[in-house]
Design goal:
globular; five-stranded antiparallel beta sheet; seven-stranded mixed beta sheet; 482 residues; 12 strands; 56% helix; alpha+beta
């Protein structure tokens, strides 16, 4: 049983974001299965807690325990890189299976043997995907340890700009791949008309329908969505220029990296480790794809069950994934647990032996306050992920509902960024996040855009307020309130 004394005497690394129990619960089902699927463990306290009319999720990693796991990961990298290639293949396979089973599940009658069997298969598949990939989060707090592991004695002699260039991903992200694919369709439409691309747009929508999903809301991006995008591109050449500029910037970064590697003469051992960690960005990107796919079908399953039972989806979102089938069978204990959760939230505690306890009720708020006291700070410190300086007003963005308040030239302050944040990141003077590491989304996209970025502050969303004027000096990892 988690105690407040345990919280008080441990150091914690916090992750956070917006999310509902129905979707976020999938991740937490994967945590105690990590050792089974990946060989690593991640002791944590996870909270999905009511904040106003919405939910926020907070994952608190026990720093001392996960540092041991981080060392185990690095040791594994040294001895068996192919182990991680196997995990990546396992992750890709689960994304493919989850998509196929999810599509089938949403077409089946709720309560039928087929629906129940496919729902159980979908959950097992999603849990396997998360269990195979959550080890990536273990590395986030240990950027200096990773740099030392990669570069050895050369780490201290490398300039910040060198590190930024050398750690650029070697492959396009799936957001960039989607833009590249859509650009190819645009070129056909510009030559032969929109009717000539019907089949291509349909295939594109099937491939990328999940692109805007997160842990709070989902949206199916179908043929109509991408047709509207094409019509806009045909009417606005500026959009084409933006996409082509972004893709060209990626190519230029690869050339700059190759030239720097040649100049520095780092040696094969360092290059091998560097290539591996740059590839890990693709691993993390593939996990985002799994998340966005499974989030869509998890929410869809909840909607189907809610409709069949005459329940409101605003109530069903408080259910956990493992509760949907018992709910269908009329389990009153599950109904009571959801009702309690609706008022406050839910806590997941996974210890170093993979034992998980799930807590609902008023004590959750006390755990949350105790954990927040352990990560609280009056200073904002982080790691530079993309160099440069900028001054601008703060906009704290906690979820997609906040996007409309973001204006060009604002400083984006978020717990973390995800693919759906890219449109506002393009307008940002700078980016500051609470969490993140070498291969996080904010770091990669900020480098692609040439926007100053500081990650891993832990407290920026708590200390900075909308309208605060700040100077972001990512060359020296400084954030100064003006």
């Amino acid at each position: 049983m988690l105690t407040k004394e345990q919280i008080k005497h441990s150091k914690w690394y916090r992750q956070s974001g917006a999310g509902i129990p129905l979707i976020g619960g999938l991740v937490h089902m994967g945590v105690p299965r990590m050792h089974e699927y990946s060989g690593f463990r991640m002791p944590l306290v996870g909270l999905i807690i009511k904040t106003g009319d919405a939910f926020s999720f907070y994952n608190y990693l026990d720093y001392a325990l996960v540092e041991k796991e981080a060392d185990s990961i690095l040791h594994k990298v040294d001895g068996d890189k192919n182990w991680f290639r196997g995990l990546y293949s396992q992750l890709s396979e689960t994304a493919f299976t989850a998509e196929a089973v999810g599509r089938r599940m949403l077409e089946e009658r709720v309560g039928s043997p087929e629906f129940k069997a496919d729902y159980e298969l979908f959950i097992r598949t999603a849990v396997k995907g998360w269990g195979s990939s959550l080890f990536l989060d273990i590395l986030d707090p240990f950027e200096k340890k990773i740099f030392s592991f990669i570069f050895g004695d050369r780490a201290d002699s490398l300039k910040p700009r060198d590190l930024t260039v050398l750690t650029m991903p070697d492959e396009l992200s799936y957001v960039q791949r989607q833009q590249k694919d859509l650009l190819a369709i645009y070129k056909v439409a510009a030559k032969d008309g929109l009717k000539a691309v019907d089949r291509l747009v349909h295939e594109h929508a099937v491939k990328y329908h999940w692109l805007k999903n997160d842990f709070e809301r989902v949206e199916y991006l179908g043929v109509e969505h991408y047709m509207v995008q094409l019509e806009t591109m045909l009417a606005d050449p500026g959009m084409i220029k933006d996409i082509e500029t972004g893709l060209a910037r990626f190519d230029e970064a690869q050339k700059e990296k190759a030239a720097l590697l040649s100049k520095l003469g780092l040696g094969d051992a360092i290059k091998g480790k560097l290539d591996f960690f740059n590839w890990m960005a693709s691993f993390r990107d593939e996990r985002k794809r799994l998340a966005q796919i499974t989030n869509y079908y998890m929410y869809g399953a909840g909607e189907k069950v809610a409709t069949a039972m005459g329940l409101d989806m605003s109530w069903m979102q408080y259910a956990l994934p493992m509760e949907l089938l018992p709910l269908l069978c009329g389990d009153e204990k599950v109904k009571s647990a959801i009702q309690i959760r609706q008022d406050i939230g839910v806590l997941f505690h996974v210890n170093e032996n993979d034992h998980q306890e799930i807590i609902s009720g008023p004590s959750i708020r006390e755990y949350y306050e105790a954990l927040e006291q352990r990560v609280a700070s009056s200073e904002i410190r982080g790691s530079s992920a993309s160099l440069g300086k900028a001054i601008g007003p703060v906009r704290v963005i906690l979820n997609q509902a906040d996007f409309d308040k973001f204006m060009p030239g604002d400083v984006l302050v978020a717990s973390m960024t995800r693919p759906e944040y890219v449109p506002i990141m393009k307008k940002a003077a700078a980016v500051i996040t609470d969490e993140g590491g070498l291969t996080c989304h904010a770091a990669i996209v900020s480098r692609e855009l040439g926007v100053p970025c500081i990650i891993g502050t832990q407290v920026a969303t708590k200390i900075l307020k909308d309208g605060d004027m700040v100077e972001v000096d990512a060359n020296h990892s400084r954030i100064i309130k003006l």
